[in-house]
Design a protein that fits this description.
Aminopeptidase, 2 domains, 20 strands, Alpha-Beta Plaits, about 30% helix, globular, alpha/beta, about 475 residues
Length: about 475
């Protein structure tokens, strides 16, 4: 979930004692010992299959648990648990003085499915090639899991004593499945993850264009995730006697109507500020279109031109797209059933049920039923009415050191808050009154975002910059010595 420019939103009045007393350190690559540690952890995590279908998050959690035990973390400060033997989460507490409330860091260990035949490398083999690290999870998000583990181990080895506890939760099923780890921990072990605020590196980061950093994004708001099932049934029959009333044709026609439909244009405080800032940076035509789109009333032609960009379109609209199809039971028989999964990313202020009703209207076919599919795959005739949470207040305690360190690592690059195009585990921590900031410190070319795709990869230099950034940043916001 990587956006571009936006503007900082509401801040909370919290004592700004956690700022640099000295100038922020500029980027220096990690030393050889740190590189060896960080690369070993990264490789180990990539090569543990943590997909929902056949993988084991527990295996990854246990591997990291052993690293913390071997480093001398007390066993009582390490928790391993979850709803079943494949979905156990790891929670590690780094003890501080307790002068300030704890900070939580969350990172999901599960990854999206990946088929070997689709990739040029084995997705579950860590491959170093031509300045990149390849493997499923190198961008989403085992690189940041490895970075956070490395940071905790590195600080512990140095004997660093923070002014507050630091909590790391490595969890299951963010990408899908029935056992979301953050949700499970909040419901079953809430005291383990109780914190003043949290960081989730599953979003945000530094956007590069042709090697130049253009923004350092912090996700302060998210769209609402939802899956819907379009399904129709038919008596079927022999394929030698085709009839117009074909279940597959019904679904195909419905998806064509969905493809041609655009949800209404809408901006909120964050996305309006996003485009206001972008209008000062984009080439002439795009900048003019953004100003026209921001006018009252907004210019429809400008909106249409800007909507040709998938990223800008997603920022201005709820989006729904077909992602899976299932139909028929034999090659020589008319289909008795056809269905499609439609994945939606819903703008704040709208509910899943509202969008389900929109889909019924868009499909416009009485023979097609539109159901809601929850995160565990259960199907319901109606969807939840809950709407996306409001934006997170940007606390100076977290943001001031971040801005200063970003300025040192990526000079001249603004730290900006944005709305993520999707949803992350932050929906659970924010709902539990733990303000959560999606920030990764990973720099990526906007043209090379491969999360969830084939040949997922991460530039080597981006990894090492992230390793060093989090070390400097955690030391700063944790206080202590």
């Amino acid at each position: 979930m990587r956006n571009r420019f936006a503007a900082l939103v509401a801040t909370a009045t919290i004592g700004a004692s956690f700022v640099f007393a000295q100038p922020a350190p500029t980027y220096t690559p990690p030393d050889a010992a740190t590189k060896e540690l960080a690369l070993g952890i990264f490789k180990q995590l990539i090569e543990i299959n943590t997909t929902d279908s056949v993988g084991s998050v527990t295996a990854a959690s246990k591997a990291m648990q052993q690293r913390f035990l071997d480093a001398g973390f007390p066993a009582e400060d390490i928790y391993l648990g979850g709803p079943n033997d494949r979905k156990e989460n790891l929670v590690v507490r780094y003890r501080g003085t307790g002068a300030h409330p704890a900070i939580l860091f969350i990172g999901h260990e599960d990854v999206v499915e990946a088929r070997r035949e689709d990739w040029t490398t084995d997705p579950f083999q860590f491959v170093e090639k031509e300045g990149y690290y390849y493997g499923r999870g190198t961008q989403d998000m085992k690189e940041n899991d490895a970075i956070l583990v490395t940071t905790f181990l590195r600080l512990h080895k140095e004997g660093f004593k923070p002014d507050r506890d630091l909590i790391l939760a490595l969890t299951a099923d963010e990408e899908g499945g029935k056992s979301n780890g953050v949700d499970w921990l909040l419901k079953n072990q809430p005291e383990l993850v109780k914190a003043a605020f949290a960081f989730n590196p599953d979003g945000g980061g530094v956007e590069l264009q042709n090697g130049k950093a253009v923004s350092a994004d912090v996700d302060a708001s998210e769209k609402l995730y939802a899956d819907f099932q379009l399904v129709t049934t038919n008596p079927g029959g022999h394929s030698s006697l085709p009839v117009p009333d074909n279940a597959i044709y019904h679904i195909a026609d419905a998806l064509q109507r969905l493809q041609n439909y655009s949800f209404p244009f809408e901006l909120n405080a964050i996305t309006r500020s996003y485009f206001e800032k972008l209008a000062t940076l984009e080439p002439a035509q795009a900048a003019a279109d953004m100003r026209a789109m921001l006018a009252t009333p907004p210019d429809a032609a400008a909106i249409a031109r800007l909507s040709k960009s998938p990223e800008w379109n997603s920022t201005m609209h709820t989006t729904c797209v077909a992602t899976r199809l299932l139909a028929g039971h034999a090659n020589n028989a008319l289909p008795q059933m056809a269905q499609a999964n439609v994945n939606c990313r819903i703008l704040p202020g709208h509910s899943r049920e509202e969008v389900r009703q929109d889909l019924i209207r868009i499909v416009n076919d009485s023979k097609i039923t539109v159901n809601y599919v929850d995160e565990g795959g259960k199907i319901y005739a109606t969807a939840p009415e809950a709407k996306a949470l409001p934006p997170v207040a940007l606390q100076p305690e977290a943001m001031k050191p971040l801005e200063k360190l970003v300025a040192a690592y990526w000079p001249g690059t603004p730290v900006v808050a944005d709305m993520a195009d999707g949803a992350s585990d932050s929906i659970y921590t924010n709902a539990a009154d733990i303000p959560t900031y999606n920030w990764s410190a990973i720099e990526l070319e906007t043209s090379d975002v491969r999360a969830h795709g084939k040949d997922e990869r991460l530039p080597e230099g981006s990894y090492w910059k992230g390793v060093q950034f989090w070390y400097d940043y955690v030391k700063t916001i944790a206080g202590g010595e």
